[in-house]
Amino acid sequence: MIEFTPGPADLGKRLDHFLQEKLPDRSRARLQAWIKAGQVTVNHAPAKASLTLRGGERIQVTPSAPPPLRAAPEDLPVEILYEDAAVVAVNKPAGLVVHAGNGVHDGTLVNRLVHHFQGLSQVAGDLRPGIIHRLDRGTSGVLLVARTDAAHRALAAQFAARGVEKIYLALVQGRVRDDTGRIEKPIARDPVHRTRMTARLATGRSALTDFRVLERFENFTYLEVRIGTGRTHQIRVHLASIGHPVAGDKLYGARPAAGGGFMGEARIFLHAWRISFTSPATSQRVTVEAPLPLELEEWLTRLRV
Q1: Can you give the pTM of this predicted structure?
Q2: Longest Cα pair distance anywhere in the chain, in angstroms?
Q3: pLDDT tens for each residue of 18-60
Q4: Catalytic one among 16, 75, 84, 136?
Q5: Which terminus has fewer CB within 10 Å in the chain: N or C?
Q6: d(Cα 19, Cα 63) in Å, to the nearest integer?
């Protein structure tokens, strides 16, 4: 256990910022994970990262073992939608984290992949073998995995050149007026709420989202969404920025009861439905689809009644 007592110079500092200063050899993500897990106490009580220090508190930190240096294989199911000598396309369920990070060290999609496949690309490192792109934890759907380093680089080049077509299905709050639309707003980390991204700042990374209305309901609109870039939370941020947050997405302003009382608290309605790319193994254009999960089909069925 490590103990600290903030002095007068620490008055007004956030707990997590104070710990970063005192433990510079530990990553911000690691410290945040310890705080969230209750491994950091202030005056013998768990505290939030945002706690403002007044000086004189007794801060105790109980470090945990560092995360593994490589992803360990775990014998858990993986739904394969397509595979060849260069690439595997899998159907990621909602709730499954793609790779280790932010305090998550096992139970990820990568842990499953390294069990099922003898070799995967190492371009992204030992903790992210094969991972070229990712999906948010709450998003389901098709994800590409590179089997070799050469395939990884070839597919990454396609993503960079916008040669990979990604189509999502999303249910959003409210009735979208236009049948089609384009959102071009830069996306940056929210300076206040660090777990969120924002499209409200003039700065950030360029992002392009196109949408087409598939179906309208009384309080919702069902959309087909195409993205030309792959920014963190891009679809969620962009749709929220035009006043139509993804149903169930409370992080970006969806009302808690937005699911009509049957899905709004369980997951967000965002699904990576189709991806098209050129396989490095065959040089042929490949299109892979992940069927809409049952719980989302049921959500639509209830809206149609």
Answers
A1: 0.77
A2: 66
A3: 999 999 878 787 888 899 989 999 999 999 999 999 999 999 9
A4: 136
A5: C
A6: 12
User: What CATH number did the domain enclosing 46 receive?
Assistant: 3.10.290.10
39 and 77 inside one domain = no
For 37-63, give the DSSP string: TT-EEETTEE--TTPBP-SS--EEE--
Q: Which of 214, 276, 262, 207 lies closest to 240, judged by CA?
A: 207
In the annotation, is 179 catalytic? no
Q: Do 214 and 124 fall into the same domain?
A: no
Total structural domains within the chain: 3
Residue-number span of the structural domain to which 121 is assigned: 68-161
> 144 and 77 in one domain?
yes
Angle between helix axes 28-36 and 15-22 (nearest 10 degrees) is: 130
**Higher pLDDT among residues 192 and 277, named by residue:** 277
> For the chain, how many helices (H) and strands (E)?
6, 15
- At position 292, the amino acid (one-letter code) is L
